[in-house]
Design brief:
By secondary structure, the chain is mainly α. The protein has a domain of 56 residues. Helices cover 65% and strands 3% of the residues. The strands form 3 sheets. Strands 1-3 form a two-stranded antiparallel ribbon.
Length: 633
Amino acid sequence: MLHIQSSTAAIAVATTSISDTTTNAPRPVSAAKEHRHLSTDLNRAGSSGTAPVNSRTPAEPNDLATRSTSGSSPGSAVANGLDASLSQHEDTTAPASRPPAATIALVMIPLCLSVLLSALDLTIVTPAVPAIVASFHSTAGYVWIGSGFVLAQTASTPVWGSLADIWGRKPIILAALTLFLTGSLLCALAPQIDALIAGRVVQGLGASGMSTMVNVIICDTFSLRDRGLYLAITSIVWAVGSAVGPVIGGTFTTRLDWRWCFWLNLPVGGVVFFVLLFFLEVPSPHTPVLAGLKAIDWTGSLLIVGSTLMILLGLEFGDVTYPWSSATVICLITFGTVVVGIFILNEWKLAINPVIPLRLFANRSSVAAYLVFSCNFYVLIGLSYYLPLYSQSVLGADPLTSGVHLVPLIVSCSLAAACTGAFIQMTGIYRPIMFAAQALMILGAGLFINLEYGEGLTKLIIFEVITGIGVGMNMEPPLLAALAAATELDTAAVTATMGFLRSIATSIAIVLGGVIFQNRMNVNTGGLLQSLPPDVADSFSGNQALASVELIAGLPPDQQTAVRMAYFRSLQAVWIMYVVVGGISLLSNVFVRSYHLSSETKTLRLGLDRQTATAQAPDQDGTELAPHGSPRA
């Protein structure tokens, strides 16, 4: 089971770095309508600030400058030194020239390195786990070396967006990077396994903030039309980092020492920290620490973290540590769900600066975009997890080879994401791409059902490429659609919410796929009893099937065939589930609206007084387009 997880973990996160302030549906606006911009006073009590975004900014009484604007090049904020320009008491939305490639590179390189570190540390320890267990002479709690990182990363994701809105993007990404490096140091120096697990939890908290802030900074810096390309670049970095993580971890473990898996982060992370500190030019609201702490939605933060941990722990324990019918699993999932309801009530009625603003879900198009995004990753992660199981159990591949079998999925997904980002940058069109992507994803997942036992790799590779192209094409458009339907004040909230929903969908995809697979293996146990002794057949039933893959190679040829056929038939039911989820995604896409993706650079209010601007936000970020592609009147 450990080998299966090590070959799939690289893919399960390879694309995870991707991620309506009104209570009514956004109002269509004319393309000729003038955009309103907030003028900014950075001298007011040091409690507010502005950041560059390329989207609609809501009007605020007595603090409004109105002018018509023409499209400006993406990333102009980076080129013009935003801190200086935004310190003036005047509108800062004048068109700016496209920044030189060197300027963009100076921002993107450290951001991509941040993503790379997060991706590496999710997978680099997998091959090192046996050596770590031997080093500490303890098997107790070894599973938490990986799970502690993932749980901390998932549960804390929604909180980072709220913190960035209060204190600004730069301080928060530096704080997240500091947490990550501190956790790495704790892991590298850990004297016992408990200290290592604690370090992994701290690493997960930092990695969550790094990933969220990278996406938020890109969304703030580049226009709606351009940001898809740069988000796709970070997705490719995730794919590469996740894929090479186990290789680097295995090399360190066999050639040096497993602790080098964590020492590696310190020099690279240190360079990233100082580059971001001195060269990342994004404004900060300079919010006082105590005032910022008072502004945090502590109740909402605790509720969302607590509910997420309970639900994920319930899913983690189910049929592995405890039976699904056990009181522990039932209580964790039940109480976690109840706390989610309390969290929603808190965000709706009580929170002043909510962690996840419910206005993000007041728009039918936004809800559909969130669902499409979640379904897309549900299919990707599910296939990434169970295709290596197919390779090992049905094709007889070893763990390393099963990982190689996933390369077509990685490469096709990454290339499709990059090409889609470039296409959206040139055309501003995304909705037709989403339909085409979902059709390809459903086709590819459906073709796995038609695989026949004993077939070679040719069809498997072709089907992976088709699915990978479909998934890759749809990695960024749902995020762009959700951002266009909201105001720029909610950029961080939308991005963090997308990342959070993606993580939840990932967990459910693996767990539900496992439930279906185990049930089918139980059904097939009767057939195995005709070919295998009862004790051997029991090894391949239910929840034991995933852990017994390595036993297949030791069986006589006729028994091997019977067992491999049982795995083959059981996995067909899993492929059917992913086709159904793809169909749900396709139906949801009908409700996603087409918005004009602006190329304009505008200003965004950060800090403690952003709630006032948020409450008065009249429109969404983008302009809704009519069916024929022109803006609605």
